[in-house]
Design goal:
Elements (H helix, E strand, L loop, with lengths): L2 H4 L3 H17 L3 H4 L21 H6 L4 H6 L1 H13 L4 H13 L4 H16 L11 H10 L9 H21 L1 H7 L1
GO biological process, one term: negative regulation of signal transduction
Keywords: Signal transduction inhibitor
Protein name: Regulator of G protein signaling 5a
């Protein structure tokens, strides 16, 4: 064991082990993937085991972040990559907004909007995403009367940020390069 690892808090080591496990699962050969359950899901009933994509599908992820995010396997790989870089707040915010848009009940909409704001938007939030003050001000005004589009501008900005910053790094990563092979 490295000298440096002994000094790390146990939580960091456990998180690193979890990320290593997730990345290992993604790199399994196609015939073995169905033997494993991907370990992350807040709502298991909605989550199905992703099929390993074809090489062509993986190559198409270079075209747009949307293509990557629409593929369950791609989403898991991208999320694992962001976790390995300790920058998963953007994808988590994006996914929280996607879930938020599906809510029909005004009461639940208000509750979820408050939760998203507190977790991702407000100053020094636990998973604060990088948004300008203008966008944050729009969200605060939208929170007076939440609607499915309350976070739309912020979600688009975060998506653009991931597309320009995180996606190019993901495409250069060892994980993506292995998936192409």
């Amino acid at each position: 064991m490295c000298k440096g690892l002994a000094g790390l808090p146990a939580t960091c080591i456990e998180r690193a082990k979890g990320i290593k496990t997730k990345l290992g699962i993604l790199l399994l050969k196609p015939e073995n993937i169905n033997d494993y359950i991907i370990p992350y899901s807040d709502k298991p009933e909605k989550f199905s085991k992703p099929q390993r994509p074809s090489q062509l599908e993986v190559l198409q992820w270079r075209d747009s972040l949307e293509k990557l995010l629409l593929n369950n396997y791609g989403l898991l790989a991208f999320r694992a990559f962001l976790q390995s870089e300790y920058s998963e707040e953007n994808i988590e915010f994006y996914l929280a907004c996607e879930d938020y848009k599906m809510i029909k009940s005004p009461m639940k909409l208000t509750s979820k909007a408050k939760k998203i704001y507190e977790e991702y938007i407000e100053k020094e939030a636990p998973k604060e995403v990088n948004l300008d003050h203008f966008t944050k001000d729009i969200i605060v005004k939208n929170l007076v009367e939440p609607s499915p589009s309350t976070f739309e501008i912020a979600q688009k900005k975060v998506l653009t940020l991931m597309e320009k910053d995180s996606l190019p790094r993901f495409l250069k990563s060892e994980l993506y390069q292995e998936m192409i092979k």
